[in-house]
Design a protein that fits this description.
about 450 residues; ten-stranded mixed sheet; about 30% helix
Length: about 450
């Protein structure tokens, strides 16, 4: 089976498209997560492929669906957190041979194809539609939602997996040295965290603080709240392996990575897989879990004039993303119960919030908002999932939490200060991401 990348037509990238033609016709009905680890231990049973199978089977069981009824699979085949398989390192053929192979021996170890999944999950015998949503779970979700809406598949699995090999991001060559000089340090994907990641976000945040008279210290309540929420996410890295609260003092005393971005402003890479099951609104009525309806999805184009986006460009793009989300869902900012926007670099979360005009925010308001009650017990819950800062770099905690909050299945994280009826999630970056509006009602 040949799997194609999703065409550009499946992403909603411009304003003026009106209400999404498939609003309320697609529903999430199943969730699955694999165990979370810091790095791969080399064992065949703990590969990224094994995690993927585990998460998919969990999602199927959670929805109460017969695997024979599943006819679609959407995933992102790129699974690296930044630690790529070194060319000179031998491939462990005992691990490769523990599974049904494809033509690429690293398939299921350091990358993932739809072919590998189907070869190793014989119960998915009726899958006829496969597609790649390249980038992260946020991409795969909008592709799957569009595919179900268009009738390409009626019961579709959605998968994102991450491997983390021994070592650090881009673990060889100049990127593995103690310092990275010159323009190389600003080149996307080449630094320790990559631009426009830690370094680019730090520049934008510094300009934000200068423009609006704010400070890095004002991030402390948001960071403590994110870790608190993450520690209530049973599948998360911090909850499973290092159940440590993050205090304001811890945060403010952390070493700088790219000032004003410190150690805790950057998420921690992990190994984990997450999966969802999407279906039509009609079929969802017969599923095990309460359906959570997709009202709209929208994509950020990420246009910028130079190697790093300016603050003005980021603010313009996030505001446009917010308008596209509301337009396509047929709602306003006042209808939004909670948000779960991406936070892999904590210093740009406020750009998402302000772009959404969450609780009436305008540019420059978010850090003051962080000083108020942003907890799950209050009326203005911010990032109830804990995000990547609270649970590790998966880019899918936010989506899972939106679904679970609306279903009333978020456990200790369950929002109590308001009734969680409409949530929004997505990312990764303020410029260049995909976003989804979730609802308890299809209308």
């Amino acid at each position: 089976m040949t799997t194609q990348n999703a065409p550009a037509s499946m992403y909603r990238t411009t304003e003026g498209l009106g209400v999404w033609e498939h609003k309320g016709k697609v529903a999430a009905v199943g969730i699955g997560h694999s165990p979370t680890t810091r790095r791969w231990d080399g064992a065949a049973e703990n590969t990224m492929g094994a995690n993927s199978i585990f998460a998919l089977r969990q999602a199927i069981a959670d929805a109460g669906v017969d695997p024979a009824d599943i006819d679609g699979l959407v995933l992102d085949p790129v699974t690296t957190t930044g630690a790529h398989w070194p060319e000179e390192q031998p491939i462990p053929m005992d691990v490769v041979n523990a599974y049904n192979q494809t033509d690429d021996p690293l398939d299921g170890i350091a990358k993932l194809s739809a072919e590998w999944i189907l070869k190793n999950m014989p119960e998915l015998k009726n899958v006829k539609f496969t597609m790649y949503g390249m980038g992260c779970m946020s991409h795969a979700i909008v592709v799957a939602a569009q595919a179900v809406g268009e009738g390409r598949t009626h019961t579709c699995l959605v998968l994102k997996s991450w491997h983390n090999l021994e070592g650090r991001y881009n673990q060889s060559g100049i990127s593995a040295t103690d310092t990275v000089p010159g323009t190389f340090a600003m080149s996307p994907g080449r630094t320790l965290w990559g631009a426009p990641g830690s370094y680019g976000t730090a520049l934008q945040f510094a300009e934000y603080c200068r423009k609006y008279g704010k400070s890095h210290d004002m991030m402390a309540p948001f960071m403590a709240n994110s870790r608190r929420n993450g520690l209530m996410f049973p599948e998360g890295y911090w909850a499973q392996h290092r159940p440590e609260a993050l205090t304001a003092e811890d945060y403010l005393n952390a070493r700088w990575i790219a000032k004003p971005a410190n150690l805790f402003d950057n998420d921690i890479p992990i190994m984990v897989s997450g999966a969802y099951l999407f279906t039509t609104a009609e079929r969802a009525n017969d599923m095990k879990q309460k359906p959570v309806y997709i009202l709209n999805h929208a994509s950020s184009r990420g246009a910028q004039r130079s190697i790093l986006p300016t603050l003005d460009e980021v603010e313009a793009e996030t505001a446009e993303t917010g308008r596209k989300l509301y337009e396509g869902a047929g709602i306003t900012a006042a209808d939004l119960s909670f948000e779960n926007m991406y936070d892999g670099f904590a210093l740009f979360h406020q750009f998402h919030l302000e772009g959404l005009r969450f609780r009436g925010m305008q540019n420059g308001d978010a850090l003051d908002f962080y000083q108020t009650d942003i907890s799950i017990e209050g009326p203005n819950p911010v990032l109830p999932s804990g995000g990547n800062i609270g649970s590790g770099r998966s880019r899918f905690w936010m989506h899972t939490d939106c679904i679970q909050q609306i279903q009333g299945r978020a456990g200790a994280r369950q929002i109590t200060g308001i009734k969680p009826e409409i949530g929004v999630s997505g990312g990764p970056m303020p410029m260049g991401g995909n976003f989804t509006v979730w609802s308890a009602s299809p209308d």
